[in-house]
Amino acid sequence: MTVSVSVKHRFSGFDLDVAFEAPAGVTALFGRSGSGKTTVVQTIAGLLRPEAGQVAVNGKTLFDSKTGVWVPPAKRRIGYVFQEGRLFPHLSVRQNLRYGAWFAKRGSGTASFDHVVEMLGIAPLLERRPAALSGGEKQRVAIGRALLSSPDLLLMDEPLAALDEARKLEILPYLERLRDETATPMIYVSHTVAEIARLATTIVVLNDGKMLRNGPASQVLGDPAVPFPLGVRGAGALLTTQVVAHHADGLTELSIGAGRLYLPRINAAAGARIRVRIAAQDVVLATRKPQEISALNILEGRVADVREGDGPGVMVSVEVDGQTVLSRITRRSRDALGLRIGMKCYAITKSVAVARDDIGTSVE
Ligand SMILES: Nc1ncnc2c1ncn2[C@@H]1O[C@H](COP(=O)(O)OP(=O)(O)OP(=O)(O)O)[C@@H](O)[C@H]1O
Question: Which chain positions lie within coiled-coil regions (predicted)?
Answer without folding.
Answer: none
